[in-house]
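Q: Convert this sequence to structure tokens.
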Amino acid sequence: MENDTRTRTPELLDLPARDVLTVDGTGAPEMPAFTAAVRALFAVRAALGSRDDVPLEGSYSQDGDPLRFDLDAPDGWHWRLLVPAPPHATPEAVATAAARFGAPVHLRKPRGQRVARLLHRGPYADEGPTLAALYAFVERAGLVPAGPHTEVYLTDPSATPPAQLRTHLQVPVSRWV
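A:
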């Protein structure tokens, strides 16, 4: 069966403001800093008493430009990884838990935003056509990207064959001004 990465229709969603745990970093996902950030997010979340399964999210930009992203140059990626924070999390509790793991985990509350979203099926390295379709949808809708794109990992890459990975790709949008 052929792997069609554009099997879904793009959609617009309004995401509410929410508390999240974040770690910021740079470089390719294969680098130790990325792996350490993922571990730290889930360890701090568990230390705060939340053990339910939640997807990891990552926002990516290139060399400090929030609207640029080059799949072929991951060493220049700037990323913010995040997971939902437990409802009772406080900055102090997060700082205490993060110190136990030696991790720069922070509690943040991003504002609500409108996003365009499209499901990508398959390896992360093959996201190019899906991202292009998403940005084309944004332009056709008379919108403009308002920040870096985010990937919401719906499947675990350590337990899922690359061809079966599912990732929501989304980009915050605003109207033309």
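The chain has two domains: 1-16+112-177, 18-110.
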